[in-house]
Amino acid sequence: IDQTEDAMFSGNFILSDGALQYVDVPRPIEQINARIQASQDRIQIDESGFRAASNRFNMSGNISNPLDEANRNVDLSATVNFDLASIKEFYPIDEDTLKLRGQFDANIVLRGQADPDQIERLLQRSTFELRDGYIDHRLVGKPLEDITLTAEATGTRLSIQNARFVTGENTLAMNGSVSNYLSDDPVFDLSFDGNAVLADVSSYYSLEPYIQELSGSAVMNLNARGPAGDPGQIALNGSLEVNNVNASGDSLGLPVTGLNG
User: Fold this and answer.
1) The whole model's pTM is what?
2) Strand stretches in the chain, DSSP E
């Protein structure tokens, strides 16, 4: 078919109480259900979803003109309730590489004309919440613990009502917004409150060759605003107190020792 938008079809798809189990995991994904009516004009999803122990995913809604990319319109809603610690029981995750914990809940609404290049524009007042989160990846020196996240996404704007975590002796809380968050040049307006042990920075982000040695501590209460891709245009407002900072590296003419203030 050369012109897929001119194709014609009609049918129903019904799946009841399906199950799927991956190799090398102890438990199956169960209660896979779907009731879908489909034609070239409209795909109507009356019900779809699955259950895996206490984890649930459900989606319903419709897609108009599904074969016509220029006029395709989406109206879908979904709910997600996942206990992240249990995912390894249903989906193969190498815990030597990645460990997850926490309760993740989301209510997602996708509505509007679909643009493959900016699919996030479909999001309408979609909420995301993570409680008691924990992430440990082999490429990160120390795990992120006690993660809390409450956020809402509408189109290309992500509003963060509350985000905080602890890692080692470092704590950070954050709120604000990020525009064009999936683009190559997001613009943010974020407030940060927390403390950092500077020697731990290299565990998460390499400063070499600019900084080879960094120690001391910092306490911050800052607002940062501007384009992420242009540090020179980022405006900072607030306070940053440093204690006994020592630093050396190619970007410094002379080593910094015992800096306070």
Assistant:
1) 0.86
2) 10-20, 29-39, 42-52, 55-64, 73-83, 98-113, 126-137, 144-154, 157-167, 170-179, 187-197, 213-227, 235-248, 256-259
